[in-house]
Design a protein that fits this description.
The chain is mostly helical. The chain has four helices and no strands.
Length: about 80
């Protein structure tokens, strides 16, 4: 069952990647900048901005630098933690 957080997060990702992750759950572990998704870096930055603005949270610089902001699944884990 999809939670409200899942729905909002999926909508943000769909806007920035063009992928509906709720219909393509196998893609949630794919790296956003890798060839499979090939998200432009500027869209990754906008994805970070959208998530922080719409959810009213802050994702630490350390998490981004450490490579934890690299896939749908990892980003969702950052939000839940």
């Amino acid at each position: 069952m999809e939670t409200q957080l899942d729905a909002v997060l999926n909508q943000i990702f769909k806007k920035r990647t063009g992928i509906d992750f709720s219909k393509n759950p196998e893609r949630k572990d794919q790296k956003l900048l890798a060839e499979e998704i090939n998200l432009p870096v500027r869209e990754l930055v906008l994805l970070l901005y959208d998530i922080e603005q719409q959810l009213g949270i802050r994702i630490s610089k350390e998490a981004v630098i450490e490579g934890k902001f690299d896939s749908y699944h990892h980003i969702a884990e950052l939000i839940v933690l």
